[in-house]
Amino acid sequence: xxxxxxxxxxxxxxxxxxxxxxxxxxxxxxxxxxxxxxxxxxxxxxxxxxxxxxxxxxxxxxxxxxxxxxxxxxxxxxxxxxxxxxxxxxxxxxxxxxxxxxxxxxxxxxxxxxxxxxxxxxxxxxxxxxxxxxxxxxxxxxxxxxxxxxxxxxxxxxxxxxxxxxxxxxxxxxxxxxxxxxxxxxxxxxxxxxxxxxxxxxxxxxxxxxxxxxxxxxxxxxxxxxxxxxxxxxxxxxxxxxxxxxxxxxxxxxxxxxxxxxxxxxxxxxxxxxxxxxxxxxxxxxxxxxxxxxxxxxxxxxxxxxxxxxxxxxxxxxxxxxxxxxxxxxxxxxxxxxxxxxxxxxxxxxxxxxxxxxxxxxxxxxxxxxxxxxxxxxxxxxxxxx
Length: 386
Hints:
The protein has helices at 7-14, 26-37, 41-53, 57-73, 118-130, 155-162, 174-186, 191-198, 206-217, 221-237, 257-267, 344-347, 374-380, and strands spanning 77-80, 94-97, 103-111, 140-148, 169-173, 244-249, 270-273, 288-293, 298-305, 310-311, 325-334, 370-372.
């Protein structure tokens, strides 16, 4: 079982990450630790999410190295860049070379809070072409990897479109990049497939990655039904007819996941599902449901189900055509400011991971609506000791 250390312990051991040269620097010690100890995407995801939950240069630099290490899992030959640019050096964050001779020049941004100037990344590629490191723009792409995408900030996407650079620059969230690595390691997806995903038309890769992860992570309807029946039998044995559900909530271009849950669950006491949401047909009055804010935030609310899912329009649902199935809720309990982070320590306490390594690939647990055991529900909703 791969347990590993928490990232803060690793950073304390290796020291402050910087661009000092040498084989025994903090930077090289950290990269050797990743290559020697981090052998699953699950641990890598935990480390990335720990970086995003903390502030400071050391975490920002660690995030840059972790993003580059995701490139290894995607079967690229990865060249790490500098943390800070210097005069006379090409300042890319990462240079990934595919098996097919295609080059991806990576820029890692923790957030989109500050304006990002696209000529900088284009300049890196131009310089590498001039030095003969890359044959031409036909063999290259600039890729922005965003740690915490902000649905209210579309400056980078708008800039790429307005400057007619959609054939040169792409944007992907680090969460979606990790999902690509999980697809490659778990399913019949190879490096060529990954490359074709990163190079579609349009500036943002996230929608296509979201589609792929939904298709492979979504349980088949019969499996969901079996899980619901099993959970119901268990509940009835305990003189409780409720089933327990976990559903993921993603941020959109209109609002963050937290804002959406506050609006729908906290104020309107409803939730809306898409047509293809697994388990939607089996959610019934009396069930309990909790809401996981994607991107490493955690479980941020729970409620009791008060109705079957009904196809109807509700004024609180902003995209009723995409989310036509509405369930009424009662006793909503949001806790946006103190979410339940699903880290390795917590996963080790969940029944869902009894026969699994809690540090291995684990995003399957939060990528689709699923029926869970009562014990796990109480842990995730901070009620186990009540």
